[in-house]
Design brief:
The complex is a heterodimer. Chain A is α/β, with parallel strands linked by helices. Chain A is elongated. In chain A, strand 8 and strand 9 form a beta hairpin. Chain A is 42% helix and 20% strand. Chain B folds into 3 domains: 97 residues, no CATH class; 206 residues, no CATH class; 25 residues. Chain B is 20% helix and 42% strand. Chain B is built from 5 helices and 17 strands. In chain B, strands 1, 5, 8, 9, 10, 11, 12, 13, 14, 15, 16 and 17 form a 12-stranded mixed beta sheet that branches. In chain B, strands 2-3-4 form a 3-stranded antiparallel beta sheet, with no helix packed on it. A two-stranded antiparallel ribbon of chain B has the order 6-7. In chain B, a hairpin with a 2-residue loop joins strand 11 and strand 12. The chains are: A alpha/beta, B alpha+beta.
C-alpha cells in the first residue's frame, strides 16, 4: 500500500503553496504551497463526491497535504486516524498524499478490488497530477476526478480501460482474450461476479484465450489466478479455444466448495451452451452455479459425489445363504469324516528305507514364455453416473507454491 | 491228512494259551508260563475226514473232548467249539506254509473291546442306539497271513511345469506363463511292504490298520498261535506282488514329484519306474476283528494287534445329520446377513 513517490512528484510538491484546510466534512483536501486547484473546482469535486456517496453508498476522500510529516509511518498513522474519524460502515476509499508518499486506504466490501488495483489507480492519478506544476489549470482537478470515477467503476464491477496509455486494465473478473463476449455481456457477467465476490468473499473468474502460451492449461489457469491479484479464495475457469479445452482452478475455500464432482456438475450445466457457441449463456450458468454451490457449501451441503447408497437386499441374503450352505456342507463332511476310518492305501511311504532316496538326475529346462495382456477396465466416468469420484477435491501445487484444486476436459 | 497240535501244560495238562501281557504261553488253570520259543510239548494228532465231502472243509477231532472241529482248508489255528481248547493245524503252518516270522499279539480281547468302546466316543453323528444297543456279535484275534515285499524303485520321470506371474503394464494386466520341462531320476528302496494274503479278510481293513512294525517280528513258532485263529495264505506271491509294486510305484512318483519346488503347476507327462529286488517273505500279523450287529446290518472293525490302531466305518444318524445341517445353515445365514447388514451402515 505504501509506495515511494516518484522524484518527479516530489519536486512538484516542493513548489506547491501551503494552504491548510480542515478535513472535517470535506471529501477533498488540497494543501499545497501553490494554488493548483481553484475553489470552484474544489466545490465541484465536493458536490460530485457527495452525489456518489448518496447514489452509490461509496465515500471517497482525497487528502493532498504537504503539511503531514514526510515519512511513510506518519502518513499511515494520519490515514488511519482519518479513517477512524470519518469512514462510515459502507464502502470507503481514501487517497492520502504528503510530500513523499502516497497511501490508499479502502474499507468495506470494496477494499479488495481497490487494493488489487492500487497500481493502476495511482498510475492514473499520477499521469494527470504530474502536469499540475504548470500554473493553475485543470490537471489536479482532472487527476482527482479520474481517481474517484475509477474507484466507482471498480467498485461497481465495470470493465474499464484506464485512459492512460500503457497503464494496465483494471483487473476484472471477465478476461475475454478470445473475444467470445460482447462488451455489454462482459460488463453484465463482471457485475454478477463482483456482486458474488462482495457477498461471499470468493473470486469467481472467467478467462477465455486462444493460446495458453505453451503452458499446459492447468498451469496457465493456476498462474493466471495467482499472478493477477485475485484473493485467497476463488475459482477460475479457462476456456482454451485453440484446443477446445476447459479447466477449473480453485483456491483456498474454493477448493473445499467446488469438489471434482461439483466442477463436473458445473461444466455439465454449461456444456450444451459451450458446444453450441452460446458463451454468454454458458458463463451465466457458471456465475449462477458458482453462487449456488457456494451457498450450498456454506450451509454445510457441499456439492460432492454421494456414493450410491447400497441397500441391503435379496442379493445379500442370497450370498449369506450360499455361505450358510457351504458351511453346513463342510460341517457335514467333517462330521461324517469322523465316522469313516477304513480306506484303501494307495501309497507305501511307511516302508521307505531311511536315507535310501537318491536323486541321481534332475534338470529344469525352461521351454518358453507366454504373456497375455488384457486392458484393465477403467473406472467409467459417465456423466451423472458418479463412477470414479472419491469425493472431495484433488489438489496440486502451482508454480507460485500455492495449493490449487483443479479439474478439466474438452468440449 | 492234516494234523492238529494242542499245547498241554506240563504241570497240569491244561490247554495253554498265548498271553499278550507276558508274551508267553500261559496255563489258565495253574498260571504256569512257558516261553513259546522253547515250548515243544505239543502232540500232533492225525485226523481223518473221509466222512466229509466238501473239500474246503476239514473236520478235526478235538483231543481234549473228542468233539469235531470243522475248519476251512486255510485255517491254521482255531479252538474247539465244545471245550474251547486252542488247536493248531500244523500242516497249514509247515513246509511252504510255514511263515518266516510272526508278530505276536500285544493286545488281548479285553483291550480290543476297550479300544472298540473308545472308537465310539467323540462321534457326533453316531446314533445313540448304536452305542447303547449294538452288541459285539463276534470278536476274534486272528493271525492274518501277509506277503512282505522288498524292492528298489528306479525312476525316470518327466514333468511339464509352469510358473505364472501377474503384473501390470500401463493400462494392461499381464499374465506371464513360463513353461518348463522337468526331469527327475533316482532310486528309493522299500522294505517289507505288506500285502494281505488272505481272501477272507477285507483288504481295505487290513490296509487301514497299517503299519506293522516288522522289526519287532519273532521267528515263527506255532506256540504263538495258541488261543488265536490263524489262516494260511490263499493269495499267491505274484498276485500280491502286483499290489505291492503298485503302491511302491505310486509312492515313488509322489516322492519325486515333491522334489519339483517353486512351480505353480507340475504335471507328470511320462515316467518309467522299474522295481527290482523283489524279495518276498511270508509272515503272520495279529489282527483283532470285531463284528457288530446293528439294525440288521453287520459292521466290521479291525484293530492292529501290535499297535492297537483301531478302524471301522460307523453308521450315521440321518435325522441328526439333517437337523445339524439345517441349524448350521440357518445360523450361518443369519450371522452372515447380520454382518453384511452392519457393514452397510
Amino acid at each position: 500500500m505504501k509506495k515511494l513517490l516518484n522524484l518527479l512528484l516530489i519536486s512538484l510538491l516542493m513548489i506547491l503553496a501551503c494552504n491548510s484546510i480542515s478535513a472535517a466534512g470535506e471529501h477533498v483536501v488540497v494543501n499545497t504551497s501553490e494554488e493548483v486547484i481553484s475553489s470552484e473546482q474544489l466545490n465541484k469535486l465536493e458536490s460530485d463526491l457527495l452525489h456518489i456517496e448518496q447514489d452509490y453508498d461509496i465515500s471517497i476522500y482525497v487528502i493532498f497535504d504537504q503539511g503531514i510529516e514526510a515519512s511513510d509511518t506518519a502518513l499511515t498513522d494520519y490515514a488511519r486516524n482519518f479513517a477512524q474519524r470519518y469512514f462510515n460502515s459502507k464502502n470507503n476509499v481514501g487517497l492520502f498524499i504528503n510530500s513523499q508518499y502516497y497511501y490508499i486506504l479502502a474499507q468495506g466490501s470494496a477494499s479488495d478490488v481497490i487494493e488489487n488495483n492500487i497500481d493502476s489507480l495511482w498510475d492514473e492519478f499520477l499521469y494527470y497530477a504530474q502536469y499540475a506544476a504548470s500554473p493553475a489549470d485543470e490537471y489536479l482537478y482532472k487527476a482527482i476526478e479520474t481517481f474517484y470515477q475509477s474507484c466507482v467503476k471498480l467498485i461497481n464491477g465495470e470493465v474499464y480501460q484506464t485512459s492512460v496509455p500503457g497503464v494496465v486494465v483494471a483487473t476484472p473478473y471477465v478476461n475475454d482474450y478470445a473475444d467470445l463476449l460482447s462488451d455489454s455481456e462482459e460488463l453484465e457477467l463482471n457485475k454478477k461476479l463482483l456482486a458474488f465476490k462482495n457477498r461471499y468473499g470468493i473470486d469467481a473468474v472467467i478467462v477465455t484465450t486462444n493460446s495458453t502460451n505453451g503452458m499446459n492449461i492447468r498451469d496457465y489457469a493456476d498462474d493466471f489466478y495467482d499472478y493477477n491479484g485475485y484473493g485467497k479464495d476463488g475459482i477460475l475457469i479457462v476456456l482454451d479455444m485453440y484446443n477446445r479445452e476447459w479447466w477449473f482452478s480453485t483456491k483456498g475455500k474454493g477448493i473445499d466448495y467446488f469438489t471434482d464432482y461439483g466442477l463436473d456438475q458445473i461444466i455439465e450445466d454449461m456444456y450444451d451452451d459451450l458446444r453450441s457457441g452460446n458463451y454468454y449463456g454458458a458463463f451465466s450458468t457458471y456465475a449462477k452455479d458458482v453462487e449456488q454451490f457456494t451457498e450450498s457449501a456454506i450451509n454445510g451441503n457441499t456439492i460432492d459425489y454421494q456414493p450410491e447408497e447400497i441397500r441391503f437386499g435379496l442379493t445379500n441374503i442370497a450370498v449369506s445363504a450360499l455361505i450358510g450352505l457351504f458351511v453346513s456342507l463342510v460341517t457335514m463332511l467333517v462330521l461324517k469324516g469322523q465316522l469313516k476310518s477304513v480306506s484303501r492305501q494307495r501309497l507305501a511311504h511307511n516302508y521307505i528305507v531311511g536315507n535310501s532316496f537318491m536323486l541321481t538326475g534332475a534338470s529344469d529346462l525352461f521351454v518358453n514364455r507366454h504373456v497375455t495382456r488384457s486392458r484393465r477396465p477403467e473406472p467409467t466416468r459417465s456423466s451423472g453416473g458418479g463412477g470414479g469420484y472419491s469425493g472431495g477435491s484433488s489438489t496440486h501445487t502451482s508454480s507460485s507454491g500455492s495449493s490449487h484444486g483443479g479439474h478439466g476436459g474438452h468440449f | 491228512m492234516s494234523e492238529l497240535r494242542e499245547f498241554k501244560c506240563p504241570n497240569c495238562s491244561g490247554a495253554l494259551v498265548f498271553d499278550t501281557n507276558s508274551q508267553k504261553l500261559k496255563c489258565p488253570y495253574c498260571d504256569g508260563t512257558f516261553d513259546p520259543e522253547v515250548f515243544d510239548e505239543g502232540k500232533d494228532y492225525t485226523v481223518n475226514n473221509e466222512e466229509w465231502n466238501d473239500e474246503n472243509i476239514i473236520v478235526y477231532s478235538c483231543h481234549s473232548c473228542g468233539g469235531a472241529i470243522m475248519a476251512d482248508r486255510e485255517t491254521a489255528a482255531t479252538s474247539c467249539p465244545y471245550c474251547g481248547n486252542p488247536v493248531v493245524m500244523t500242516s497249514n503252518v509247515s513246509g511252504v506254509f510255514k511263515p518266516k516270522k510272526i508278530i505276536p499279539f500285544m493286545f488281548n480281547k479285553k483291550q480290543a473291546k476297550e479300544r472298540y468302546r473308545k472308537h465310539l466316543t467323540n462321534k457326533f453323528l453316531l446314533p445313540k442306539e448304536f452305542t447303547s444297543s449294538a452288541v459285539i456279535d463276534e470278536i476274534k484275534g486272528i493271525y492274518v497271513p501277509y506277503w512282505l515285499f522288498d524292492g528298489q524303485a528306479n525312476a525316470r520321470i518327466w514333468f511339464d511345469a509352469t510358473k505364472v506371474r501377474f503384473y501390470t503394464e500401463g493400462d494392461y494386466d499381464c499374465t506371464e506363463t513360463s513353461y518348463y520341462k522337468l526331469f527327475r531320476a533316482g532310486s528309493v528302496r522299500f522294505d517289507d511292504v505288506p500285502v494281505d494274503a488272505s481272501r477272507e479278510v477285507n483288504d481295505d481293513l487290513t490296509q487301514s490298520i497299517e503299519p506293522f512294525e516288522n522289526k519287532d517280528a519273532k521267528e515263527f513258532n506255532t506256540s504263538y498261535l495258541a488261543g488265536y485263529l490263524a489262516d494260511k495264505y490263499d493269495v499267491g506271491v505274484e498276485e500280491s506282488r502286483e499290489i505291492a509294486n503298485n503302491r511302491i510305484a505310486n509312492s515313488t512318483s509322489a516322492l519325486f514329484a515333491s522334489t519339483t519346488m517353486g512351480y505353480d503347476t507340475v504335471i507328470p507327462t511320462s515316467s518309467s519306474i522299474t522295481i527290482s529286488g523283489g524279495n518276498q517273505e511270508y509272515v503272520m500279523y495279529p489282527i483283532w476283528l470285531l463284528n457288530v450287529k446293528y439294525n440288521g446290518k453287520t459292521y466290521t472293525f479291525a484293530m492292529n494287534g501290535q499297535t492297537g490302531k483301531f478302524v471301522g466305518d460307523l453308521p450315521y444318524d440321518r435325522s441328526k445329520l439333517l437337523t445339524t445341517m439345517a441349524i448350521v445353515f440357518v445360523a450361518v445365514t443369519l450371522i452372515a446377513s447380520l454382518i453384511q447388514f452392519l457393514m452397510m451402515r
